[in-house]
């Protein structure tokens, strides 16, 4: 199976409503921090973990799947779409929390394997 590229976080800030203008959105800031840390993960992490991160990232930033499933001849995009669809029931906040937890786990595993 081909290697899966992780999505790159955009530089745009999360839109806010009137209630959020008073305090910064800490979960979003922490999510962005861990999205940056995900870029430092070793290439040796499994495609399964990369796909999980991809799905959680898309769910956290976009929400539910917005496109049709790619065709059988476009396997890379099909795997990514399936990973996103698999976490479709999660709220954006749940997806962010799960993404952060998974990146922490993968960073700890990478650190332990280099020790």
TrEMBL record:
GO biological process: fatty acid metabolic process
Cellular component terms per the entry's GO annotation: cytosol
Pfam families, sorted: ACBP
Location in or out of the cell: Cytoplasm, Cytosol
GO molecular function, one term: fatty-acyl-CoA binding
UniProt KW Cytoplasm keyword: no
Keyword annotations: Lipid-binding
Gene3D superfamilies: 1.20.80.10
Domain ACB positions: 27-112
UniProt cross-references to InterPro entries, sorted A to Z: Acyl-CoA-binding_protein (IPR000582), Acyl-CoA-binding_sf (IPR035984), FERM/acyl-CoA-bd_prot_sf (IPR014352)
Residue segments, region Disordered: 1-26
Family classification: Belongs to the ACBP family.
Protein name: ACB domain-containing protein
Organism: Oryza nivara
